[in-house]
Design a protein that fits this description.
With 134 residues, the protein is α+β, with helices and mostly antiparallel strands. It has one domain: OB fold (Dihydrolipoamide Acetyltransferase, E2P), CATH 2.40.50.120. 28% of the residues lie in helices and 37% in strands. Strand 1 and strand 2 form a beta hairpin. The N and C termini lie far apart (65 Å).
Length: 134
């Protein structure tokens, strides 16, 4: 009986792990141009501060970045990007204060947002060339 219970527990745990992994299955883009095509903004910036809030039982945040380099979109000194955090398999991303990131973001409901699947997959210079149309 103990062996059967243990076996069922392992199957259940494996099912949860698989469903979490499937929940955030990121697309592998063919090129920087392909990944940048649908984005509204791309920049390189330093994460300054993240404010957190609850989103349907998950923790979400808005991170303020000091922009060091704009690759796509209107050049601004500061950008605020919404994102899920600590979401298990749900594509959350955490930006550490003081670290520099390349951020690809999308506009929705008057706000820019990103997730772990939107993180750059290619060298920055590939995105620069793609944004210039070369």
């Amino acid at each position: 009986m103990i062996v059967r219970t243990l076996g069922l527990s392992l199957v259940a745990a494996g099912s949860v792990a698989v469903s979490a992994a499937i929940a955030c299955s990121c697309v592998r883009h063919a090129s920087a141009e392909d990944q940048l095509r649908g984005a509204d903004v791309m920049f390189v910036g330093r994460a300054e501060e993240t404010s957190t809030r609850s989103m349907d039982g998950y923790r979400g945040g808005v991170t303020r970045f000091t922009v060091e380099r704009t690759i796509k979109g209107e050049a601004r000194a500061v950008r605020r990007i919404a994102h899920g955090m600590d979401m298990g398999g749900m594509c959350g991303v955490v930006f550490q204060r003081g670290r520099t990131y390349a951020v690809i973001a999308y506009a929705s409901e008057d706000r820019l947002h990103t997730n772990s699947c939107s993180m750059p997959q290619f060298p920055i210079e590939d995105y620069v060339r793609a944004a210039r149309g070369r």
